[in-house]
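hiii so um. not sure if this is the right channel but i have a protein structure encoded as tokens and i wanna go backwards to a sequence. like what aa goes where. can anyone help
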């Protein structure tokens, strides 16, 4: 996904991932081995190395998640690539999804507070 910038932010290449796996308050991605997800990280790294803005955006879809981590225990290769992507200049962002309540807008989902992305060595 390529987003055109506006007056305050440059254009960006963005990959959006949903985080639903929760273990003891930690959100993990991916929840299964993902060669496709690894491919997307490599593509973002190439954009960052070419001087483009590249963003991996995690949408947190579980109210019990306080931070997002790489699921190295599920896909260790993805974890290695995620750390390489960060080192290559890929921005890692995570935000809570805010679902509408019974009185809320019809089907609209908005972004709530930021959630930290933690990369252990």
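sure thing!! here u go:
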């Amino acid at each position: 996904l390529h987003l055109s910038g506006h007056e305050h932010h440059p254009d960006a290449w963005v990959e959006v991932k949903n985080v639903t796996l929760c273990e003891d308050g930690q959100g993990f991605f991916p929840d299964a081995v993902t060669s496709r997800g690894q491919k997307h990280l490599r593509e973002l790294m190439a954009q960052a190395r070419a001087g483009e803005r590249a963003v991996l955006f995690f949408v947190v879809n579980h109210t019990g998640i306080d931070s997002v981590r790489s699921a190295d225990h599920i896909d260790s290769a993805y974890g290695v690539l995620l750390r390489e992507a960060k080192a290559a200049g890929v921005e890692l962002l995570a935000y809570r999804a805010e679902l509408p309540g019974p009185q809320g807008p019809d089907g609209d989902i908005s972004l709530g507070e930021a959630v930290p992305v933690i990369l252990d060595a």
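oh and The mean pLDDT is 88.
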